[in-house]
Amino acid sequence: MIRDPATPTLFQRRVYGTVGLTLLVGLYLLVGLTAHDPWRGDDARHFGPVLAMLRGESWLFPLLAGEPLVEHPPLYYWVASAFSALTAAFLPAHAGARLASAVFVALAIWWLARAAESLHGRAARTPAALLALGTLGLVLHAHETQPLLALFAMLALTLSGLAELPTRPLAGGLKAGMGSGLAFLSAGFGGLWMSAPLLPLAMLLSADCRSPRASGAVLLGLCLALTTAALWPLVLHLQHPELLSLWLRNEWQWIVGPMLRPAELPRLLELGAWFMWPLWPLALWALWRARRQPGVLAILLPLASAGLVLAWLVAIDDLSQARLIPLVPALALLAAGGVASLRRGAASALDWFSLMSLAVFGILVWLAWSAQVAGWPSGLARHVARNAPGFVPPDANLRLLAGGAISVVWILLVARLPRSPARAPANWAIGLVMLWSLAVVLLMPWFDQGRSYRTVVESLDIAVRGERGAQARECIATTGLPDAMKLSMDYFAGLRARPIDADATPCALLLVHVERRGRSAALAPEWETVWEYRRGAGKRAETFRLLRRAGR
């Protein structure tokens, strides 16, 4: 085995320095971002308001297939719709909208690197970027239409501003205030809760922020945050007061609603353990190292941020994976401070674990592709066929060459990685980006067929046209559809289903959705099935049925 030189060569400094890190971030953000349909779940659900804005239905309040979507204020949707409009000449609307996710993640990584430099010194800048980039649970959400990525970026901006308070009070206070105000426009009162208290907490808990200039900057930042946050509700009140009332009622629910039960805390810990890998071991090490320095801003600031996010998670009683995204900035800053002091044995163990675990996942990706193309291993091939019946892998030879090239580059980059305190985070980040690129090249078509509703909607549209033509398209009732299906019907076929009111509907057609092996709601005998579509298997099995009122 060739030993790394004591002094990296110029080529190594370029490849593993700022240029290489920039290319790595670009590869991470762009590969797999625009190459698939809106996927069921958050990706399709949050494209709905973007589509409504592009059609001119509503710019002030998010709508999904004509219905209010009250979960998030419109900051992310504004940016996504702007990107979608600007790229309409060469990208589909849903692909252009996802560019907003890439921008917000890139901004978050940049601001976290600057925050780590202010808190821990210049040596922590690259590890902070690598650790945020390599967060295991972030990779899938960074490539979907996800409003919480805007909150991710705004929390990073807030922390970056507060990290500058001791040295640049005015600039730091204004940055923190703007980040907090935009966090409200990203996630409502939850975003304000996770960001605004950090300003007075930084001043109260850390002696570094108690100077007159820093105190004045904090007050100015709070004024800027509250002013920025108040603009959207004020305009919404003037234009659509009923929508503002609806949104406020929904926000009030997470404040006064049921909290996370103690019995669910182990599930939260289990979810956080894999989602936040490898941040949490390094963050715990940093806390242990700083146990005799409790008043240091580098520890107090991210610790306070993590506490506010955890309090929000407990309050909303929602353990979906994307809800953990706001926890990444705090843990990334803590972990970046622990990298330099990590003992050689622990650093080597983390390094080898990164190499071996990601190599195993890479082998599994190749096996999954082999099951699609060659039917081996047979058990995995049966699973692939069951989840995507009739799937034929496109461009098998081209994908084989591209996947082989990615694997070779991955091995070369890891083999020549210079020894440094950031070697373990770099190994992990490089491996994760290459693994994601390999999965996109080899498996994206299979995932797209299984997670997109395009084929379902195209089949449904043919059935609807065959029943009553344009009249049927104007009135389709439903007993309840996933938001992703509502968006897909609206986007791919211009179909919108009406909810049933008081167990009755004037519509002649009824669309029913059944998940797994469940039973649909009891219907009157006058309804007869005219179309059925089954897809998925196991926990993801679902059935769609189109029924017609007999005699109509």
TrEMBL record:
An example molecular function term from Gene Ontology annotations: pentosyltransferase activity
Compartments (UniProt record): Cell membrane
CC per GO annotation: plasma membrane
GO BP annotations listed: lipopolysaccharide biosynthetic process
Topological relation to the membrane, as annotated: Multi-pass membrane protein
Transmembrane intervals: 15-35, 75-92, 99-116, 122-140, 147-163, 183-205, 217-238, 271-288, 295-316, 322-342, 349-369, 396-415, 427-447
Record keywords: Cell membrane, Glycosyltransferase, Membrane, Transferase, Transmembrane, Transmembrane helix
Entry keyword Hydrolase: no
Protein name, as recorded: Uncharacterized protein
Source organism of this protein record: Thauera aminoaromatica S2
Lineage: Bacteria, Pseudomonadati, Pseudomonadota, Betaproteobacteria, Rhodocyclales
